[in-house]
Specification:
alpha+beta, about 55% helix
Length: about 120
């Protein structure tokens, strides 16, 4: 399940996925560019605001446009796509978010404990 859809983290700590990879993993039969046009229109996505453009190079060394979309947008696309694959991928995104939150809370708790111990040892 870990390789379902690769989740990337941007410099500002936002989690994003490749729209092209999501399209592939959802098993969408429609040509990617037409599908993406449908998504941007239906969801009113704006380049530079809700997604950014990047490149994808295939095994034949051909470059095609791709788009990095935030996890929340990817979850929404899965929800409206319907089907078992979409449900599984959406659950994967949700589980990943819960896991990240749990890890973040654990790290914060660990830091607080260390700070508290260092404060009490100086008294």
């Amino acid at each position: 399940m870990a390789d379902l859809v690769k989740i990337q983290t941007t410099d500002n700590m936002e989690q994003v996925v490749s729209a092209r990879e999501l399209h592939e993993k959802l098993g969408i039969l429609k040509r990617f560019s037409a599908w993406w046009d449908d998504q941007t229109s239906r969801l009113e996505l704006k380049e530079g605001e809700t997604y950014c453009t990047c490149g994808y190079t295939n095994a034949n060394n051909q470059t095609f446009p791709d788009y990095l979309i935030p996890i929340d947008i990817a979850k929404h696309i899965c929800m409206v796509s319907g089907g078992e694959r979409a449900h599984i991928i959406r659950q994967y995104f949700i589980l990943n978010a819960v896991t990240r939150l749990t890890i973040t809370k654990a790290k914060l708790h660990e830091r607080r404990s260390k700070l508290w111990k260092s404060d009490t040892s100086h008294q």
